[in-house]
Amino acid sequence: MNDTLPRVARVVVASPLPQLDRELEYEIPVEMRERIGVGMRVAVPLRTSNRQLQGFVVALEQAAEYGGKLASITELVSIARVLTPEIAGLARAVADRQAGCAADVLRLAIPARSVRVEQRWLEAQAARDDTDDQTAPASTEDQASEDQAATSVAAQPTPADAAVREDTEAVLVPMYGTDAAALLARGSAARLAIDAPVGVDAGVPRSLLALAAVAAARARAGESVILAVPDYRDVELALKALGRFLETSRIRRLDTRAKPAERYAAFLACLDDTPGVVVGTRSVIYAPASHLGAVLVWDDGDESFTEQLAPYASTRDVALLRAERESLTLVFAAHTPSLEVARLVGMHWLTPVPLARPEAPKVISGSQALAEETPAAHARIPALAWQEARRALEHGPVLLQVVRAGYIPSLSCARCRTPARCTVCGGALEFARPSAPPSCRVCDALHPEWQCPECGDKRLRNTSLGAERTAEELGRAFPGTRVVVADGASETVSIDDRPCLVVATRGAEPVPTSGYAGIVLLDTERSLAQERLDAGVDALRGWSNAAALAHPNAKVVIVGGETPAAHALRTWQQPEYATRELSERRELHFPPAVRVVALTGTDEEVRRALSTLEAVPELQPGGALQVLGPTPQEVGSRAVITFGYALGTPLAKALKSELVRSATSRRPRVAGRGGGHASTLRVRFDPPGIF
Q1: In 3-state terms, what secondary structure has residue 657?
Q2: In the prediction, which pLDDT does 552 show?
Q3: Is-contact 238 299, C-beta < 8 A?
Q4: How far apart are CA 130 and CA 75, in angstroms?
């Protein structure tokens, strides 16, 4: 028996239970000791519940720290090393920051296993290893000579590589200047917030083209790059942009819309030793890219980057953690910077990179441009907007951006204006299509005999129009003109330059080959009227991203009154708007000037958690911790805590301890008897829309 083989494995089990969120020690059976490795999947028993769980090996040891008898690993599920040390450490860091479980992070980071795909990948790996062994040099001197030759060849790009490198420089240098372009393409461990260029180049937004050029330049230099974008439309456009600089074999798509087998194959491809660019949506930030040198994030303020699963860490926060842990170059790019990025720029933690020459679309106000006060000045589509749309249709596609999808997505009583609600679940009623009875937007229940609960009237009125109804009206106003509807359900990513009217919701605008000949931004006041602290920032982001798709000769008409957000759009001064908004939030003690954590559960659980925090010395000085609540909810209670960033670590640690205590202090249910109930205490850091 080989005494040097490991005897003990440290395993992270795939369980959301906070009391199991640690490395558990297991004995390695003798027959597994030669095959087991760090990063492999295993099956292990849990003595307390007499069941088995899968997990990942994170360390191998000769001896255990635990003095008692260890349980043995039940099965070596796979010999594929799918969990790298970097991702294991990142998962632990994310979980600690969010008071969550590393297993929940790994569920997001590592796709579901496909045995067939994995077997093919392992066979390909073995074939490559055999080839490497067969071509190994005969001596150390020969090896050194070949290494030197390989280095020399790598330093001199092939003709294809040289052409690609020239193309990336040709894109970046005019945009950002020589020095900034070199920093983007070759800088080491830089932390940058770059201004995004406007316009469209051969069907690709120039903003994504710039990031693709940065990624391609670094990939050609031997680094891997992660490019995170908000949704599948941006993924398609980013792939199109990257295809202009890199061969397909160097580009990997990793997003949740792919079929499970395809996604797992792309994930395994990231583990290969060939540097490349990994493109995807929010979970791509966990990609195990080899030789990783840079992380690029496009439009980090987009709501799609908000993780919906525990521990709810946003893509931006994970990118910040990963860049710091692995000494990576980090680049945030957007037309409208998020307030979180604006805060980091103000702290000089991120370095702003402006465009070499200022670029801005021509934005005019559709309402205030009319000299006199007339009803047309306050119509949903003012006369000036109609005129510009008609003129622009002679040259190409025209975009009309609306707030809501659907036909008529909001209804109210025609007499007293009481919002029409579903009698089953309380959701808002809508007209889903022409001549359809009112139906619930939540549960789809039909209400053909709806009656107002306040005044008894049975008549309904429209309180907002959706994309489909707007398209219907435009079809009548512009007979013979093609009308395209693009909303969340639409798969339209690109269109050609033929004249047409495009009615799109925010973020769903298809990209024309040469840009829109005209753009009209509708429902702006409704966008700003939402009862959310981030309504203005989100509206400006949506308007800016649409306006950036305009052709250089096009006009962008914004319909609505003059507001700070509308002024920032017209003057194209989004960073200044973000800075002012952040300054106001500092005075009011609102995020992101401070962080927020929400506690939910029974009233007893929430109050006990708050009392636990009062006993933590690090959380007391200066009164930087402010508690709102607890307040009763539909189920249980909720408390909201605002705190300074410096208190994040001790606060998360204290709340995690309380989660463990709450989860383990109740007796499990026993069939046929009474017994305790499972803990309902939940902790969520930085919840969106809390204010």
Answers
A1: helix
A2: 96
A3: no
A4: 27
